[in-house]
Amino acid sequence: MTLSLDTLPGLALFSCVVRHGSLTGAAQELGLNRSSVSKQLARFEAQLGAKLLQRTTRKLALTELGERVWQEAQTVAAALGNIDAITDDYRQNVRGRLKVSCSSSLARVHLVPLLPLFSQRYPEVDLLLQLEDRFVDLTTEQVDIAIRVGHLPDSSLVARKLGELQWQLVASPSYLAQHGAPQTPSDLVQHACLFYQNGLRAMNLWTFSGPLGEEQVRVKGPLAMNDACALVDAAINGLGILLIDRALLAAPLASGQLLALLPDYQLAAGLPVYAVYPARDWLPAKATAFVEFIIKEFSPRLLVR
């Protein structure tokens, strides 16, 4: 005979009867009538193929097998209690390892500066920050939370919008001295432009709003790559005109290494930024704390729309 999890309700009922020493006491705790408890106990004994309790009109007595089953039942009860404590800790206490995926440039500029504050608030959380410019599979790679840039495909993931990146069009003084500055968006087709490309997605369709309304320009140039910080370095070194997250440009704009272009034109809204995580009825407390933290602290660093 092989027992299965289907026997657990019977084991729980048997344990309740033994604790109370009577069918009546067990019935009161379980909210059943005495007859129902008696029938379920008999069904459990039938599953085991042996008597666990000797019943008389005055009392119940454990059989030899019943004594051994009762001892094992207490072990099972202790294990279930431990499982209950573990799950309570998982849901309520902010501790343990938290694996977060984020693009390298977004992490450097927006996320990493906030981590000392997060660690100060939640010292028992050990962050594993995975930096890479691709959409990771959260389930396969056991990632708790991913911070993603761009419009998300339909999926079973929960997505919390953090805001949108702010674009800036720039070039180096050396590039402008050699090639001149564009005066309108349409001039960009005559220039070497640098843009982000990850796999099959190339961000080389740039949108502007100006006196003539909205203009879209598909640019081309000598370099595309999947690292935004490296693109900034390429622009500083005079390789071309760059449209990129403004937050990456604070230092080179302040130092004059890069100059802002087309001041009379507004740039289209930047790409949205989301915190995504697997849909779960019970999100771990550490993940909930991190999501709420970045919504409060990370979002103001972006242009929220």
What does this structure look like?
This protein is α/β, with parallel strands linked by helices and 305 residues long. The chain folds into 3 domains: 5-92, Winged helix-like DNA-binding domain superfamily/Winged helix DNA-binding domain (Arc Repressor Mutant, subunit A, Orthogonal Bundle); 96-165 and 271-301, Periplasmic binding protein-like II (D-Maltodextrin-Binding Protein, domain 2, 3-Layer(aba) Sandwich); 167-267, 3-Layer(aba) Sandwich (D-Maltodextrin-Binding Protein, domain 2), CATH 3.40.190. It is built from 10 helices and 16 strands. Strands 7, 8, 9, 12, 13 and 14 form a 6-stranded mixed beta sheet that branches. The protein has a 5-stranded mixed beta sheet with strand order 4-3-5-16-6. The longest helix has 29 residues, at 64-92. The radius of gyration is 32 Å and the shape is rod-shaped. The mean pLDDT is 85.
Helix fraction bin: 25-40%
CATH first level of the largest domain: Alpha Beta
H/E order of the elements? Answer: HHHEEHEHHEEEEHEEEEEHEHEEEH
Regions with little confidence, pLDDT below 50 for 5+ residues:
none
